[in-house]
Structures are given as structure tokens and as C-alpha cells.
Amino acid sequence: MSAGWNTIESDAGVFTYLLTNLGVRDVQFEELIALDADLLRQQAPIYGVIFLFKYPTGEKPSHTPRDGSFDYEAAENLFFAAQTIQNACGTQALLSVLLNKEGEVEIGEGLREFREFTGAFPSELRGEALSNSELIRDVHNSFARSSPFISEEQRLATEDDDVYHFIAYTPLNGVLYELDGLQPAPIAHGACTPDQFPDKVIPVLQRRIERYPANEIRFNLLAMVRDLRIKAQEIGDQNMLYQEEQKRKAWRWENALRRHNFVGFIGEVVKGVAGEKIKQGDYDKWIEDAKVKTRTRYEEKKKAGQDVEEVGA
User: Fold this and answer.
1) DSSP 74
2) Are 53 and 218 contacting, i.e. CB atoms less than 8 angstroms apart?
3) What is the mean pLDDT of residues 123-148?
4) CATH code of the domain in which 102 resides
5) CA dist 254 → 176, 240, 250, 259 (Å)
6) Which residues are annotated as site, described as Transition state stabilizer (predicted)?
7) Which of 6, 104, 115, 266 could make an S-S bridge to 144, C-beta 3.0–4.6 Å?
8) 140: in domain
9) Helices (H) and strands (E) in the chain — how many of each?
10) CA-to-CA distance for 65 and 253, rounded, in angstroms?
11) pLDDT of residue 271
């Protein structure tokens, strides 16, 4: 049996270096903090956006989408893959944009060969090929957060679980498409050129968010754009170039940390500190001091009128 797909975070640094490690050049992701067309336009050129949202597990399949219309012909002419495995939807969403941008973006030899190999496949078989691609799966899994508490063999989600899903939006052949591997075909949202994309996609995203209760805020939006260091160099903005280089440095550090779990290390540190306190005869005093500090914080919060739970003496 082939190895499974692990969960990865919806993070600009993760997605940027995931593509880099797949051989893609001059592409990065930027997180958008607001649904604002002008904010999105500032990142131009924009290849598409990746949207993360809480998936309604109890929702029944439909022959017509709630917004837009299925374009079954586009399912044959574009790169569109059915989602056939859990935990791969983030990578599948970004590839749904990227593999439709060959000619605009240097996608690298590995992905080019994969696209050519699956070009004549129906969407279901494309999804199976993607799920079984060792290259894509291994790079994807290299960005999973290391944890000793999560098994790779995860159970299927139920209606009681919080399940999150990634989909992509991109302008292709003069049409704004929603690419969702759980749907039977790409969903067309009307005419759209690359220049119109910021103004066209924001209302579609707003309508989707409006389906949820007002207190639901768990959404994330990432824009796939050209490497912003190139723009900084083209316009001669040294400050922007420095900021982008610092951003990349921070992303590399964060991605390195994701590959390690520190539970064992922390456990050894705690054991070492406790052992040293016992050795010095300070262990009981150390525990009592901690209790006093906890009690003091509790009393301070209580006086400030904050809701607190009773703590042990």
C-alpha cells in the first residue's frame, strides 16, 4: 500500500516552498487579510487564489452548484482532477492553478511530465494519478507538522467533525473558474480576464462566506503571485527587496521547525530541571513557590472580574 498524505497548514511560506521543492520557479504565495480587490491587485501579476473554509460535511451533492454553473467541457480541456484522498486538497488546489498556467509560469520538469502524462485522462483518473505521485506526495508530506500524537492513518471525517477544504479560483480562457476536486466539473463564474480577476473573484468569495453564520471566521485566502522580489528589482525598491528576503528567511526557519517535534526535548528539559532541584534539595520549595504564584494570579484575575476556574491549593 502506498504511503498516505499528511495534513499541511494553510500558510504562505509552506505553499511557496512546496512549489519551490517541486521545481517551480518565480512563484510565491501571499496571505490576504481582507476581501479587498485593491489589496489583491497590488500583488499583480496574480495567477489565482486558494481559499480555505470549513466544509459542511452534511451537505448533499447537487446537480447544480449554489453559485455559478458547471462547465463539463472545461473538465476535459483544463487540468482538473477529482479529489480521491484525504489531506491532499491543499496541494491539489494549488496545482489546479499552477498546471493551468504553463507558459506563464516555469513549472519544472517533474510537474511538466506529470501534466503531459495525465493530459488525456478523465478527472477521476487524474485524481488517482495525483494521489499516487511519489514526487508530489513526498514533497507535500515534507511540510507536515511533526507530531507524536497524530497517526498517518486517519479515520474518515463525520458530520460532527470540523473539516476544512481548499479550493482554487483562477481566470482561464476568458472565464473565472472555481476548481474544486470534490465537484464533478469546474464551476464557471462568468467572463473574466487576468486584469479583471481581483474585481471578479472578490464578490464570488463574499457570496460563499455569506452562506455561513456571522460568527464563523475560520477562513483563509492565499494569492498565488509572481515572486515579489522580481517586482522589487524591476522597480528598484531596495526596501521592498530587503523585506521580501527577510520574509523568505523567516519562512525557511518556520518550515525547518515544522519538521521536528520537541515533545521529547521538552520532556528531557523538565526532567533535568526537576532532577537538579531534587539534587539541591529545593524541589519542595520550587513546587510551593509555583502554587503561590498560581494562587496570586487567580486572585488578581478574580479581583479584575475575569471568569476563572478554581485552582487547587
Assistant:
1) H
2) yes
3) 85
4) 3.40.532.10
5) 34, 21, 6, 9
6) 83
7) 6
8) yes
9) 12, 7
10) 41
11) 61
What is the grid cell recorded at 294? 498560581
Residue 136 pLDDT level (bands cut at 50, 70, 90) = very high
Per the CB < 8 A criterion, the answer to whether 4 and 90 are in contact is no
Other Cβ atoms closer than 10 A to 145? 15
Same domain, 98 and 179: yes
Residues facing 30 on adjacent strands: 223
Q: Among 84, 119, 104, 108, which Cα is nearest to 4's?
A: 84
- The strands making up 163-172's β-sheet, listed across from edge to edge, are 27-31, 220-226, 46-55, 163-172, 175-179, 187-191, 69-70
Q: Write b or e for each residue in 123-140: b if 16 or more Cβ atoms lie within 10 A of its Cβ, otherwise e.
A: beebbbbbbebeebbebb
Give dist(CA 218, CA 284) in Å, integer. 44
Contact 8, 140 (CB under 8 A): yes
Final residue of a structural domain among 258, 274, 293: 258
Amino acid at 99: L
pLDDT at residue 286 in the model: 65
pLDDT over 90 percentage in the chain: 56
Active site residues: 89, 165
pLDDT score at 61: 62
This prediction has a pTM of: 0.78
Whole-angstrom distance between the N-terminal and C-terminal Cα of the chain?
53
Does 209 reside within a domain?
yes
